[in-house]
Amino acid sequence: MNVGVAHSEVNPNTRVMNSRGMWLTYALGVGMLHIVLLSIPFFSVPVAWTLTNVIHNLGMYVFFHAVKGTPFETPDQGKARLLTHWEQLDYGVQFTSSRKFFTISPIILYFLASFYTKYDPTHFILNTTSLLTVLIPKLPQLHGVRIFGINKY
C-alpha cells in the first residue's frame, strides 16, 4: 500500500459505482437481504418482500441522498463536502448508465414486492411510499436542491 501517493481521480467517490462488478454485487446484496428475511420463520412471503423493499429503499436513501461529503481526501477545495453521493455520482452528469441503473433497481424491486404481496392495500401503500422517497430525490430538477433547508450544511 502506497501511503500518501496521489490517485488519478479528483474525487474517487464519483467513479465507485462504475467499477467492475459493482452492479452484480449490489444485486446479490439485495438478493441476500431478501433470503435472510425469508429465512425468518414468522415472516410471510408478502411481509418479507415488503421489508426487503423498505429496507433497501431506506438504505439507498441514507447512502445516496442523506449522507454528504466523501470518505476520501479530495483536492477539490471542499466542493464534494456539500454534495450528497447521488450529486457526486458521475461528476453530476445526468442520465449516465450508473444513474439509470440505480433509478431502475428500486422500481424493479417495487414491482416484485407489489406482485408478491398481491397488491394488498397496506403493503401497496408502504411500498409506494418507500419508492417515492428514493425516486423523487433522484430527479434532475432536484440536483443540489435542499427542500426547507434540510441537509443544507
Automatic annotation (TrEMBL):
Main location class: membrane
Transmembrane segments: 23-43, 101-119
InterPro entries in alphabetical order: ORMDL
Pfam families: ORMDL
Taxonomic superkingdom: Eukaryota
Membrane topology classification: Multi-pass membrane protein
GO process terms (BP): regulation of ceramide biosynthetic process; sphingolipid metabolic process
Subcellular location: Membrane
Record's keyword terms, sorted: Membrane, Transmembrane, Transmembrane helix
Family per record: Belongs to the ORM family.
PANTHER family: ORMDL PROTEINS
Function, as annotated: Plays an essential role in the homeostatic regulation of sphingolipid de novo biosynthesis by modulating the activity of the serine palmitoyltransferase (SPT) in response to ceramide levels. When complexed to SPT, the binding of ceramides to its N-terminus stabilizes a conformation that block SPT substrate entry, hence preventing SPT catalytic activity. Through this mechanism, maintains ceramide levels at sufficient concentrations for the production of complex sphingolipids, but which prevents the accumulation of ceramides to levels that trigger apoptosis.
Protein name as annotated: ORML1 protein
Native organism: Pterocles burchelli
Gene giving rise to this polypeptide: Ormdl1
